[in-house]
Amino acid sequence: MVVAGCTRCIKYMLFFFNFIFWLAGGVILGVALWLRHDNQTSNLLILQFEGQQAPSTFYISVYILIAVGAVMMLVGFLGCYGAIQESQCLLGTFFFFLVILFACEVAAVIWGFMNRDTISKELINFYDSAYIKAVDVSGSPSKDAAIKVLDAFHTTLDCCGKGDDTALFRQVATTLCPRKSLDDFLKSQSCHDKLIELFSEKLHLIGLAALVVAVIMVFEMIFTMVLCCGIRNSPGVY
């Protein structure tokens, strides 16, 4: 152990923040796996209609989150070990990966902010395409498949219709929403609003996690630089 005084305090603070970072990686990995297997999203994103799969943009975001959580756990372990061993090589490698992760996180947050409505809009368009076929009175060959798709939406989200439903839809509402009476249908929330609400909640959760991790990473980068300088300037290091 070559460091002393304030530098030793920085060493243990860096170890503590790295341990928190490692735990945060585990939490993010767990949340991502929960989002991947959440019943509401899974029931909607496995749907197919007229050979078209439901949009999977949300799953792409979740897979990126899984990878980030796993890398964070690896980098957190590297930081903890480097701090305890007082290794400039390990700390330098840790700092390099930390900067890369921070840059990727900033880029992901910017992309997510710019495309925050894309996921719900894609699913709303998918819902509307089935909705048009389901209320078609001409007997479209895909009508039964459309009704099944709408039933999955209505059951999962506890909604019915898209909010501005025509008199024609009200006539077939008992078929498309068999679990709701006419009074329930009139009081029920539109599926458009439910889809926006569903993915807004999940994206806010992801954004909050990203903010907490970013704050931890900033402190870690500062402590890592201070500790490396302290190790380099210690009397026992040449």
UniProtKB/TrEMBL annotation:
It is found in: Membrane. Disulfide bonds join C159-C191, C160-C177. CDD domains: CD81_like_LEL. InterPro entries: Tetraspanin/Peripherin, Tetraspanin_animals, Tetraspanin_CS, Tetraspanin_EC2_sf. Its main location: membrane. It is a multi-pass membrane protein. Keywords: Disulfide bond, Membrane, Transmembrane, Transmembrane helix. The chain crosses the membrane at residues 12-35, 56-84, 90-113, 203-227. One of its GO terms (cellular component) is plasma membrane. Belongs to the tetraspanin (TM4SF) family. This is Tetraspanin. The lineage of its organism: Eukaryota, Metazoa, Chordata, Craniata, Vertebrata.
